[in-house]
Specification:
4-stranded antiparallel beta sheet; 4-stranded mixed beta sheet; 8 strands; 22% strand
Amino acid sequence: MKYRFNVIMTDEDYLEYNKFQLIRSPYGKKQLRNLRISLTALFGGAVLLSLIVGGLSAEYLLTAVIPLAVLYIIMQAVCERFLAWSLKGQLNMMKKSGKPCYSPDSVMEFYEDCFTEITPDNKTEQRYSAIERISFVDGKVIYIHINNLLAYVLPLNCFESKEQYESFSEFIKGKCDKVDIY
């Protein structure tokens, strides 16, 4: 065994991972871009329809078109914040329902050819070839993505020292071609 980490994940760690997935990751950026394009098409269609119905009179522009344009600008400006707020609400609802979203305590073991996650409920082994990408975020956390929905989270607090973090970083970077640093 090359590395062994006791991973203690908090609600905040899980929320930050989901925010990252939703807003900063390549997967989330693509979805966010598509949402923005859809909003543009929706509001563009509404403005065009209102112009066809109401004409180009100054009164109609002030009462229908300009408010739609202002609403569009506001929605584009707060889109990311709204998604993060919505995500936090969804995670709180899942927590209240008693269905855990994640295991707060796990052990991650890294070997030369594979790695395992051991939780109180199960043991999962993955080969490094299953890793789709690795994300180093703000020097605080490492996400090992298996796909666009599943990732193993290694917060900075699971490393004993800065040297261990850097040694592991070099090790894991050698196991995957797609490494992103945020």
